[in-house]
Amino acid sequence: MITSRHICAVIPTYNNGGTIADVVRRVAEQMHDIIVVIDGSTDDTREVLRSLESKLTIVDCPKNGGKGVALKKGFMKARELGFTHALTIDADGQHLPEDIPLLYRAHTVHPEAIIIGSRVLEQENMPSKNTFANRFSNFWFALQTGLRLPDTQSGFRIYPLGKRLHGERLLTARYEAELTLLVFSAWANVQIVAVPIRVYYPPKEERVSHFRPAYDFTRISILNTVLCVLAVVYGLPRRWWRSLWYYPFFSLYLLLFVTPVMRWLQLRYGNTEEMNVRLHRFVRKYVRPLITMIPDAPLVEKGAEYSDKPAIYIANHNSQLDILYCLSISDKVTLVAKEWVLRNALFGRLARGFHIIPGSQNKEVMEEAIRRVAELGYSVVIFPEGTRSLNGDLQTFHRGAFYFAESLGLPIRPLVFRGFWDVWNKANPHIGPGKIEVVRLPEIGQDDARRQDGYAAMSKRMAAEYKIQLDQIANPRD
Fold this sequence. Notes:
By secondary structure, this protein is α/β, with parallel strands linked by helices. The chain has helices at residues 20-28, 45-50, 67-80, 100-109, 128-145, 177-187, 213-269, 273-286, 289-292, 320-327, 339-343, 348-353, 363-375, 400-408, 420-423, 455-474, and strands at residues 7-13, 34-39, 57-61, 85-88, 114-118, 157-160, 192-196, 299-303, 312-315, 333-337, 357-358, 379-382, 412-418, 436-440. The protein is built from 16 helices and 14 strands. α6 (177-187) runs parallel beside α7 (213-269), α7 runs antiparallel to α8 (273-286) and α13 packs across α14.
């Protein structure tokens, strides 16, 4: 059971009297709050819902307005009740409510994103018209936004109900409304995350469908024509504007200001510790603002206060922005990075000035390098995942960081990052909106009970702790 009270289920229904009871019961096993929008049903849907023991909020529309209208009314009711997110699921039994935790888990990782349950397009009993309609829709969505999604027609989704939901005012009445929400949100660089789900298609004689092929395909074709025109004059320029502003500014700032000043510091003070400290102070003052200047992406920091004594920092790794943040933690901090960073012609020498340690070395060499910088008073940032996550999910924690902390007798300072991936990630070159959160967990000293079982157990324990923390950050009202 999902205990979070910031999210509710919205179930639009039109003449689904034969399936709605089963769908509601199974959704109620997964979630506390359910809103059912009766879209002018003329069958026994109302009587069936009244007979259920599940606690429901019912929005009863006397006339059938279509799925788009039903969704809009459901979202309005959800906001009125104080919910920040809505999970939508069809009332025909096609989606399996038992898969709600899959979508919810993706939501905890990407709380500002739209989460889509992605169906398998070819399976038993799936109508051929559904397969064609989905591929048709996927093609036009890719053309209009530059993004590829495996299933743009699925009604099994989680929507943010705040300013991250775009296009709601322009919703059309029928099935194409859900495509409109995706397209306008994509133009605003809202992340859209697809999660594989199961799906059930009953035999043809048991199937209830309100899709009218000729009429609805015509409506969808007209809508796609309009969206293609809007994509050229509005959508794609809007999608690019953050990147077109930030990338040149970021590059010119580094090339014309940061790099020359850092190089001057090296020439002025030579290869000395004074030069290294000045480099770090310069980064904290003039490079850290590169994170806070990203449009519509506020940075929030909270948690424990750390001393300046040497330690091993650990953090989940989502984005290039993680590294900028880590280098600005204190005047004496370095990190373990890929070896190419030190060989880079543009900033390799600067990286060496920061005492950056290549992660491709064997354990003994890395241990000695960390020992050497720790004796100089430096802390070392290590990403236990080893590389940036492609989808923002927490990856397997390797043991190296915990081994070095144990063998060198250094405390561990855990940093939990959320939102860096949503703003700028490895899979999507565009700068998007989001909320960047950094939580500093309490320092784990040598005498901490969590370290008594050794570094291998500590690695597993911290991976589990990060999953808990990421879920709590996503659901602050819980």
